[in-house]
Amino acid sequence: MNTHERPTAGANLTALRGHNAALVLDLLRTAGERGISRLELAEHTGLTPQAVSKITARLRGDGLAVEAGRRASTGGKPRTVLRLVAGAGHAVGLHLDRDELHAVLTDLAGTVVATRRTPLDLGAGADAVLSATAREVDALLDAGAGGRAALGVGVAVPGPLDHAAGVLHRVTGVPQWDGFPLRDALAERLGLPVVVDKDTNAAALGLALNADGERSFAYLHLGTGLGAGLVLGGALYRGARTGAGEFGHQVIQLDGPRCDCGNRGCIEALCLTAVADGTGAGLDEAARVLGEGAGNLVSLLDIDAVLLGGRTVIAAEERFVRGVGAVLGARARREGCGPAIPVRAAPGGATLVVEGAAQLILAPLFGRGNEIVPAGQPG
């Protein structure tokens, strides 16, 4: 599908703008099929019943909310409940890894309705990667959205990068992308709003939206590279220049193996070298090294938990959780600062990053993301 032929999105974006509308939409989303009444919406948001009625009327008019029956009240007449029409809009999530492109289409509730996966050589150059990406997005929309356009495309890629500008920096192993304006180039190619972020940040955003009590944690992603996503105080932390989380390139062995970044003894180089050994002992060593880096983060940030993910971790989940946990436990005993913080495999498995990429588009609509105006969409 050519960009000039691409149809408009199913949902009206103007209805999704504004803080109060976002609050209402988020409550509709979290209520699910059970729905929520206008009175409950007013109680939870602090808005007046009149304001809630005005917002919900607009959302209903745009097909984003629908009445879903009545619920008995503790007094007076039964309350009419509303629910989100999840299929009224879609978002595309893309994970551009060094060797694979994973794409999903989700509805407004974040439920995956279509998925595609294909080999990708990130080192093949911008034109080849953009062309492959456009083909996959068109096929995804045709398969899952009946050819309708999505609200936008969230793209997760290896860092480092400038999230605000959507420009890649010197990605380890593929330095030719340094300075490339991926967000703007993809928006022009796709004819859709685009947000670009690091793969680790996309995953951490998805985890933060579904966190169960823990407001500060580190997500460590070991796959074709190693990086971290940080959630502090319930919010994704990117840093003033959106460069936070370059966890893999902290040096812990001055005379260690050379890393593709140019340094020696980076945690990433040590982990990948150990994994390449192909033995259980090699995986144990990778887990130990990852644990030392995790311990540094825990000491520095005083976080509540460490979550592990990425294809290498997924392939030996129990071994990595046990190995990293052992290092953190030993540190806690030596320092006498109480029990070690928990180490767990991140929920979501192999789809965590790509579904998090879709949340780069969806979360701000519900007031749950750090808003960045996507390329291709007016501010």
Give an overview of the whole structure.
By secondary structure, the protein is α/β, with parallel strands linked by helices. It is built from 11 helices and 15 strands. The chain has a 5-stranded mixed sheet with strand order 6-5-4-7-10. A hairpin with a 4-residue loop joins β5 and β6. The two termini are about 25 Å apart.
Helix content: 25-40%
* Assembly classification: single chain
Please count the beta strands (DSSP E, at least 2 residues each): 15
Measured by DSSP, the beta-strand proportion falls in 15-25%
Q: Which outline best applies? A: globular
Distance between the termini: 26 Å
Number of helices: 11
Helix and strand sequence: HEHHEEEEEHEEEHEHEEEHHEHHEH
Q: How does the helix and strand content classify structurally?
A: alpha/beta
The biggest sheet amounts to:
5 strands, mixed
Mean of residue pLDDT values: 90
User: Which stretches are poorly predicted, pLDDT < 50 over at least 5 residues?
Assistant: 1-5, 7-15
Task: Determine Rg (CA atoms, Å).
Answer: 22 Å
How are the strands of the largest sheet arranged?
A: 6-5-4-7-10
